[in-house]
Design a protein that fits this description.
There is one protein chain. The protein has a domain at 65-206: Tetracycline Repressor, domain 2 (Orthogonal Bundle). The chain has helices spanning 5-36, 43-50, 54-60, 64-87, 93-110, 112-124, 132-153, 162-183, 189-202, 207-212. It contains ten helices and no strands. By secondary structure, it is an all-alpha fold. The termini are far apart.
Amino acid sequence: MKTTPQDRTKGRAASKDAAERREEILRTATELFAEQGFSDAMTQELADRLGVGKGTIYRYFPSKRELFLAAADRVMKTLSAEVEANIAGIEDGLERLARGILAFLTFFAERPEYVELLIQERAQFKDRTRPTYIEHRQVHGQRWRKLYGEMAAGGRLRPIPPERISDVMGNLIYGTMFTNYFAGPAKPVAEQARDILDVVFRGILSDSERARLEGVDPLPGLPEAKGDEG
């Protein structure tokens, strides 16, 4: 049977409705998991909040585990989109990095329930060798590693392996995000971003101290970091 333009229009509308319903389920599930925890959150309560039957939820997510992990995945995809939007059109590498860090910290500061979801995932699903956050960090970190490599090749960064820079920067902002969640931000995230950038870009040593330590191992007796040029 031949497909008509009307059939195709209906198909697109149905697909859009399904995508919107899936998003609504994930958004509401995130709120419920953050409030009650994975173990205590009930599918029936989620259905009640959405105003649908449990069967509707199961059509999209066959189990609570799949629902939770999809919600965690949505957090990281939303983060990536937000960071991308904040660095779009920025050509200078250092400014891209600065805006990216600020976008990251702001994203989680404004959505503490997302941090809670990442914490719960690590606690509830220890069978997963790589949590969702780490999986996305590996994938989306490629663009930052590429940026670090280009900047080092252009003489703007020390000749440090991009992977090493990426790991250190990622750990800094990841730790700041969790500290903000557990203790509350000690200062606005814009100031936190400036502090991170100032210390990373300029270091903590004076020019004279850097010159004195040129070629000196700061941790004698321990293995050197790969690619460390001194």
